[in-house]
Amino acid sequence: MTRSNGFKVGIGIVIAALAGSQQASAQTPTLSVDPSRLPRLGTIDARFQSYNVEMVEVTGGRFWKPYAASASAPSDRGADNAGNMPAGGNPDLYAYREPIDLSNPRLRALAAALAPAYLRVSGSWANSTYFAESDETPSVPPNGFRAVLSRERWKGVIDFAHAASAEIVTSMATSAGARDAAGRWQSDQARRFFAYTRSVGGRIAAAEFMNEPTLAAMGGAPKGYDAAAYGRDFKAFVAFIRASEPDVMVLGPGSIGATIAPQSSRPSGSGFISTRDLLAASGPGIDAFSYHHYGAVSQRCSPDQTTQEAALSEAWLASTGRTLAFYQSLRDEFAPDKPMWLTETAEAACGGNPWASTFLDTFRYLDQLGRLAKAGVQMVAHNTLAASDYGLLDEKTFRPRPNYWAALLWRRLMGTIVLDAGAHEGMHLYAHCRRGVRGAVALLAINTDRTIAATLRLPVSSERYTLSADDLQSTGVKLNGSALELGLNDDLPRLTAVTSPPGSIEIGPATITFLTVGEAKNPACD
Asked: How many Å apart are CA 202 and CA 193, to the nearest integer?
């Protein structure tokens, strides 16, 4: 995001103490904001809010096991890619899932409502996935691979991307099967993959060489694979892209931090490779600096890392900024001025916690978008669209979860010009120019206090969209008091606002409010 000097932030903060009784011992924060004077910070990509469909969802294979066992869970006996799971992983963490039906009308319609977006098809499973040479798909993967991606299923991804107005982002196979006898990465499969994509009318917009090279062994890299080997292979990948696919953006390194991959979920004997070492060995070549962020590992893999009680805490919400600062410092050192892309993120790694599918996680979801847009990150790809507990949609029914409704409101209201709403105690406040309305401003106000309301004071009228739930760990959510649900024909409901006159607007405890100010007449939004 290109920053401008702007002019003085038009925000005054008044802390109004509740006076009188013992019950009013806490202070209710009051923020006074003039939307017409909020200065421009910069811009974000039109596809800023994006999502992942894991490669294992496309091929079928063993993904994160549900917390509650299901009698209707599919059998992996004789199933496609039944043994497909990260190399050396603990089998108790995974369960077989059939390939996702990307032709499903509900899934396509709900994804299209978030357009435009990037659709990232990758994940640890992608590192060891073989792309079929012809329409005849081998029944078992060749040596050095753990799964087979048929041409039919990849064509399904391309068709889905067209239907959802999404641009494809992916990564390469890098396991032993994609290497020569000396262990050097070969571009043969990548060349075939790109050529087929073009032949059926598809396009790959951007690609990482490897998913999470910091944990290369988990993706099936050869034993002893280190930063020097990665640097050699990455240079070969960049040379291939520049010569054969010059319109494709090179993303990298696509790292993840050491703290979110506990020993229980790593391959036995695997070594963590530092991002600094990867960057030093690979040299220049990336068009955007990609990284991954999870604030913790889920209870599925490490039962003591996270609790639902901490889900609204500042320490938890601020973790996305700490991760960004770490990777920005490396970007500044090794790839100055390259844009930042967060190509994989969610509530917690290892499929998410049980509350990742509830309204409790919506605070993190929207706060992360607000923080990262303000910091200039250009793309944020949520993991996943419709798999495991952290999916925007339920993986069996494709019905929206609370984070989907939040994503839809962001898409409808928050434009690509980012404004400076300042930093405040008692409320997380973000501002953008309103999408599609000249001069208008959209505000996002997040009250993470579970007991105390906050007040936002505006000098002009606004349209309010408040998300709430009767129980924070509910899989349902309300908009201005009415439950958000699909219609009989899977029609999206009308997202109807409530008009607020000039003056004070209460932001209730543990609620999230979008406000649009049509008469802001902010010059940054003209």
From this structure: 11
Specify the amino acid at residue 467. Answer: L
Instruction: Return d(Cα 501, Cα 203) in angstroms, integer.
Output: 48
User: What gap in Å lies between CA 88 and CA 111, rounded to an integer?
Assistant: 34
Residue 515 near residue 463 (C-beta atoms within 8 A): yes
Strands (E) in 242-281, as ranges, are 249-255
Distance, in Å, from the CA atom of 52 to the CA atom of 206, rounded to the nearest integer, reads: 13
Strands of the sheet with 503-507, listed across from one edge: 11-17, 27-33, 454-458, 503-507
Average pLDDT over residues 384-389: 97
CB 161 within 8 A of CB 103: no
Cα–Cα distance between 212 and 122 in angstroms, integer? Answer: 10
d(CA 525, CA 460): 17
CA distance 232 to 234: 6
Spell out the residues 6+ positions from residue 362 whose beta carbon is closer than 8 angstroms to its own: 402, 403, 406, 467, 477, 512
Identify the pLDDT of residue 426.
Answer: 78
Which two structure tokens, joined as six digits, stand for 316?
């938890």
Question: Residue 224, Cα to own-chain centre: how many angstroms?
Answer: 31
Between CA 122 and CA 129 the distance in angstroms is: 10
Residue that the structure tokens 């990150």 belong to: 377
**Contacts of residue 345, Cβ cutoff 8 Å, sequence gap at least 6:** 292, 293, 294, 320, 368, 380, 381, 382, 383
The runs of H, that is alpha helices, within 414-486 are: none
DSSP bridge pairs for 206: 169, 249
Burial 59-92 (b: 16+ CB within 10 A, else e): bbbbbbbbeeeeeeeeebeebbbbebbbbebeee
Q: Which of 219, 137, 119 is nearest to 172 (CA)?
A: 219
Q: How far is CA 255 from the centre of its chain?
A: 14
Q: Are 380 and 345 in contact (CB under 8 A)?
A: yes
| DSSP of 382-408 | ES-SSSSTT-SB-TTT-PBPHHHHHHH
- Which residue from 173, 281, 166, 164 is spatially nearest to 234, judged by alpha carbons? 281
Residues 6 or more apart from 507 whose CB is under 8 A from it? 427, 445, 447, 453, 454, 455, 456, 466, 513
What ranges make up the beta strands (E) of 300-427? 340-346, 379-382, 414-419
Cα(11)–Cα(97) distance, integer angstroms: 51
- How far is residue 345's CA from residue 342's CA, in Å, rounded to a whole number? 7
**Does pTM surpass 0.85?**
yes
Q: How confident is the model at residue 335 (pLDDT cuts 50, 70, 90)?
A: very high
Look at residue 10 and tell me whether its pLDDT is greater than 70.
no
